[in-house]
Write a structure and sequence with these properties.
By secondary structure, this protein is an alpha/beta fold. The chain contains 28 helices and 13 strands. The strands form three sheets. It has a six-stranded mixed sheet, with helices on both faces. Strands 2-1-4-5 form a four-stranded antiparallel sheet, with helices on one face. The longest helix has about 50 residues. The chain is elongated, with a radius of gyration of 45 Å.
């Protein structure tokens, strides 16, 4: 049980708040305070204790912020102290549940939407601290495993640098020790020297053919002939006619851009004229429909593909590749005859034809872009294809030369390989690797590698086990949680529902995904410019109801809440009267199940409702957060008096004066308004209006006819007039006003007694 705040120093408005007698918390504790006095600060402090959170208090330190905050709270007989740096100890799991603005913004939503961080925090809130600890360990094990993997890769790279030739790391690690390794290496070196003179030719590179993008005539034709057959012909004709009469070749693009900027009030963005009844505007809107936008999007993508595959810049990479392979082929000029002039001619012809084709294609595609709905003549692609095909033939000639040289070069190398230096070098490198494998540096790296492999295996096994435990727990809890959320949403009469809720654990972190429906329709959780979304569809009351439902759902199916403290900060914020009553019932239910309940509110109606609950009122302790010159303080609160009507407060004040005396100047201004309330109470209905003063009431009594309800009051007119006249000095500044003197104690007592006779 949370017993009391021992002290709060330099936290928000609580500059120096110490425990006052009568401020012990009860089984149900009602804390009242106006907005801006520090109620949410109290909730945040309790939540910080729940989590062992340091930042939540430090960032709330009192201005100017140069003094460290401190807090002391007593829970279940033990004191929990925040010394400005940390809490001295951690509360047991499931001791505190705190609903306050920080819970909402951290776990449920911001003012504008629900983002991935809310989903992660919500999952951690739902599955509980023990599961969160497992998730935290899973994330830690995952991070540790990735660190080990990184170290393992680094070690492998260090080992790889020691390996010569083509041996893989696996082969290197499997090599055996040889006591005659130096002797065997010397024999192979001698063998290699005998074959060295053949190496230069055998090691020489051979040319390869260069691939060219496929030139598909049908793709070009398809783009040129592309259109929308379903587009209304009459609409199309009207728009095209308008473009031809008033615009240029870029007219269609201009109209498409302009129609997006026509305001919802149907005013022309240029001249502000009303275009509601404009036929041409209606035709343009139809012309640039969603179908048109989808069509142009696909068309532009196809045009871009043709640009990328067959554009002028594409040939640059082809030309570079050809030049590289021609240079490789030139290395064999001493052994194989090459007609360099013919190759140069073919390369020049290929570039000329390709660039010509690309230029023509660019012109066709640019025309299509300006008039995307016009079907262009397919024969226009013929001249383009002729140039591309000519370029292809020239490139093929060069490739044919390259492959001829490649074939002859391979034959030449084969003829020189009777004594293969490559095979000898490989054997020598294998022996060198065999020696290196058992040197001290290598052995140390291998031992380190084996240790990392073992550690990573243990971590991966631990991760699999943790993931299984978390999944089994989360699936069981999350399903019930969805049911609980929807139960409370329906209970509050809120037309919002949660569907398809499921836990996720990306990168070892807990998260929860769900679908949010309002009025039967799925809405986007984040901010959307184009579609209805969380920010625009849900009212403030709906958003608050959603957050409260998320909070309560976790507690719904827990039969016993004994030993648990539940804090509700402004639980009826933005709520209507009917939801206020429902919240009061939920508070009663939580208390019935054994929880200690702490309600912080600025709503006097909720305070009065809870205070007068027959099943709760004997358990309630009422406190108040009061703002003073020295900061906010927690004090006892008289709910009964604070929630009385104005009429009752006036009666009690006058009665107290008559019985016990006191300051007559404080009572004098209350006599006339009390009497006005009293007469309205005795004569309900339409006889007197709320705004009628005592003078108005007297006038209506004086004018009442014989037999009317007010006739009985005519005999009381003298008393009423005397009270009305005597009240003037207490309602007006009497200094320096001739004939108006302050009321005496005797006069106040006299007229108070007269008022009470009614």
């Amino acid at each position: 049980m949370l017993e009391k705040f021992i002290s709060i120093n330099k936290v928000g408005l609580f500059e120096s708040c110490s425990y006052l007698p009568g401020c012990d918390f009860g089984e149900v504790t009602l804390i009242y305070g106006d907005n801006g006095v520090g109620k949410s600060t109290l909730a945040a402090i309790i939540d910080a204790l729940r989590e062992g959170n340091v930042d939540e208090i430090i960032r709330r330190r009192s201005l100017p912020g140069n003094v460290a905050p401190s807090v002391a709270i007593r829970v279940n007989g033990g004191d929990y102290v925040f010394d400005g740096n940390n809490w001295d100890k951690q509360l047991p799991h499931d001791t505190l549940d705190v609903f306050y603005p920080g819970f909402v913004t951290r776990n449920v939503h911001s003012a504008t939407g629900i983002d991935p961080e809310h989903s992660r925090k919500l999952c951690e809130f739902v599955i509980g601290r023990q599961a969160v600890d497992k998730v935290t360990r899973l994330a830690s094990a995952d991070a540790e495993s990735r660190t080990v993997l990184s170290d393992l890769k680094t070690t492998d790279k260090q080992l790889q640098l020691l390996i010569k030739g083509s041996d893989t790391l696996e082969v290197f690690l499997g090599l055996s020790s040889d006591p005659k390794i130096d002797e065997n290496m010397e024999k192979v070196r001698t063998e290699l020297k005998q074959a060295q003179n053949k190496d230069s030719i055998i090691a020489r590179a051979v040319p390869e053919s260069v691939s060219v993008p496929t030139i598909d005539k049908n793709k070009i034709i398809n783009v040129l002939e592309k259109s929308i057959d379903s587009m209304d012909i009459s609409v199309t004709e009207v728009v095209k006619k308008h473009i031809n009469q008033h615009l240029d070749d870029d007219g269609e693009n201009w109209l498409e851009y302009g129609i997006k900027h026509v305001k919802k009030n149907n005013k022309c963005p240029f001249c502000s004229q009303d275009i509601t009844r404009s036929d041409i505007v209606a035709a343009i809107r139809s012309y640039f429909s969603a179908e048109y936008r989808s069509y142009t999007k696909v068309l532009m993508a196809e045009i871009k593909t043709l640009h990328d595959q067959l554009g002028a810049t594409t040939y640059s990479s082809i030309s570079t590749a050809l030049s590289v392979q021609v240079a490789v082929a030139s290395q064999w000029a001493g052994e194989i005859s090459i007609d360099k002039s013919a190759v140069a001619t073919d390369l020049s012809a290929a570039e000329k034809k390709w660039q010509a084709a690309a230029g023509k294609l660019e012109t066709l595609l640019a025309t299509k872009q300006t008039k995307p709905l016009d079907k262009m003549d397919a024969t226009l692609a013929g001249e383009v294809m002729t140039d591309y095909e000519d370029a292809q033939r020239s490139i093929d000639k060069v490739n044919k030369v390259l492959m001829t040289i490649s074939k002859k070069a391979e034959e030449k190398k084969s003829s020189l390989s009777k004594a293969s230096t490559i095979e000898i070098e490989q054997r020598l490198k294998r022996l060198e690797n065999q020696k290196t494998r058992f040197e001290p540096l290598t052995k140390n790296l291998i031992d380190k590698r084996n240790g990392l492999i073992d550690k990573r295996a243990r971590l991966e096994t631990e991760k699999v086990g943790l993931k299984k435990e978390i999944d089994e727990s989360a699936i069981k809890v999350i399903g019930k949680y969805q049911t609980g959320i929807n139960y409370y949403l329906e209970h509050f009469g809120c037309d919002i529902r949660i569907e398809s809720i499921e836990p996720k654990f990306p990168s070892g972190r807990a998260s929860v995904q769900y679908v949010l429906k309002a009025h039967g329709h799925e809405i986007e959780l984040g901010i959307s410019i184009a579609n209805p979304c969380f920010e625009t569809v849900l009212s403030d009351g709906d958003k608050y109801t959603l957050a409260l439902s998320f909070f309560l759902a976790r507690l719904k199916d827990i039969s016993s809440l004994a030993g648990r403290v539940i804090v509700l900060d402004d639980p009826v914020n933005s709520f209507g009267a009917h939801r206020r009553t429902l919240v009061e019932g939920i508070i009663r239910d939580l208390n019935t199940r054994g929880a200690q309940i702490i309600i912080l509110t600025h709503d006097e109606r909720l305070a009065a409702l809870i205070w007068r609950d027959g099943k709760l009122n004997k358990k309630i302790v009422s406190l108040q957060v009061e703002r003073t010159r020295t900061g906010s303080h927690l004090r006892p609160w008289d709910v009964e008096r604070a929630t009385q009507s104005e009429y009752v407060r006036q009666y009690l004040a006058i009665d107290g004066y008559l019985e016990h005396g006191g300051d007559h100047m404080q009572v004098a201004p209350l006599i006339r308004p009390y009497l006005e309330h009293r007469i309205r109470h005795l004569f309900p209905g339409t006889l007197f209006e709320t705004r009628d003063s005592l003078g108005d009431i007297i006038a209506k009594i004086r004018k009442s006819t014989s037999g009317s309800r007010l006739e009985v009051l005519k005999t009381r007119i003298p008393d009423l007039e005397s009270i009305n006249e005597s009240s003037l000095p207490s309602h007006h500044a009497s200094d320096n006003v001739p004939g108006m003197t302050p009321p005496t104690p005797e006069a106040v007592r006299l007229f108070a007694e007269k008022a009470f006779k009614f």
